[in-house]
Amino acid sequence: MLFGKLLRLFSHIDPKPDESNRPDWRFVLHRTGFAKSLVTVVLVFGGIWLFFGILEDIISEDPLVTVDRVLHDGMQGLRVPVLDHLMVAVSELGDAAVTLPVSLAVLVVLVYRREWRTAAYWIVALATADAAVKLFKFAVQRLRPMSIYDGVESFSFPSSHATLSVVVYGFLTYLVCRGRQRDAQLRIAVASGSIIALISLSRLYLGVHWFSDVLAGLSLGTAWIAFLSVAHHLLDRDRQSCHVLWVVALATFLTSATIYISLRHSVDFIRYAM
């Protein structure tokens, strides 16, 4: 199976002797379990299919473009000052001034713990996602509903906030959840998913992205971290959760978010004004 071959190639695993003659797809099932493998396949290929389906609709100006305009106009009709302040603050949680310190803090912890392979996965996850977003923005050159950026960021497809929020907070969630009980994993996943969802919603509410931009970013980011998470799990399944990792990540997130929002909020509020 192609998916199994890609996972084994990416993770550079030397299988145990009794597994060496198994087909690739059986190896993956043995290491991850049927349910997780099925979910991963759906997320990876479903995310890729959805992303390129949206891209095709945008290029051909299919009805999705009309839906974008209708949803944009509807969201702008809901804007009030109180929600504006809230959504500006939420959107700032996806800015590089917050995600970059968190990313660096996670990398420092992984290096300190000598989790070299995990640190490499972390770097690849973020660097590849950022490069892919910029590449698609430059290639598609779709204009934003509201022009407030310069350079490649003046293009809207896909949403970098949506994509990178999924990759940073999503892959961090996977790393933090390693070795934890199911109820703890669920709470962490819900908290992380809520942050990602709110950041994505804020980009629509503030009028700087079309709905399809955000949906494409979410699908691209989800497909990428789903693949990386399983590939990493194949070689790291016995690693226990690191208490220090989530403490440092959370402390960095709260600190950088508080400082950045307090310094930047008034400027961004004017910037995103209708």
From TrEMBL:
<dbReference type="InterPro" id="IPR000326">
    <property type="entry name" value="PAP2/HPO"/>
</dbReference>
<dbReference type="InterPro" id="IPR036938">
    <property type="entry name" value="PAP2/HPO_sf"/>
</dbReference>
<keyword id="KW-0472">Membrane</keyword>
<keyword id="KW-0812">Transmembrane</keyword>
<feature type="transmembrane region" description="Helical">
    <location>
        <begin position="214"/>
        <end position="235"/>
    </location>
</feature>
<feature type="domain" description="Phosphatidic acid phosphatase type 2/haloperoxidase">
    <location>
        <begin position="118"/>
        <end position="229"/>
    </location>
</feature>
<feature type="transmembrane region" description="Helical">
    <location>
        <begin position="93"/>
        <end position="112"/>
    </location>
</feature>
<protein>
    <submittedName>
        <fullName>Phosphatase PAP2 family protein</fullName>
    </submittedName>
</protein>
<feature type="transmembrane region" description="Helical">
    <location>
        <begin position="189"/>
        <end position="208"/>
    </location>
</feature>
<feature type="transmembrane region" description="Helical">
    <location>
        <begin position="160"/>
        <end position="177"/>
    </location>
</feature>
<feature type="transmembrane region" description="Helical">
    <location>
        <begin position="119"/>
        <end position="140"/>
    </location>
</feature>
<dbReference type="Pfam" id="PF01569">
    <property type="entry name" value="PAP2"/>
</dbReference>
<feature type="transmembrane region" description="Helical">
    <location>
        <begin position="244"/>
        <end position="263"/>
    </location>
</feature>
<keyword id="KW-1133">Transmembrane helix</keyword>
<feature type="transmembrane region" description="Helical">
    <location>
        <begin position="34"/>
        <end position="55"/>
    </location>
</feature>
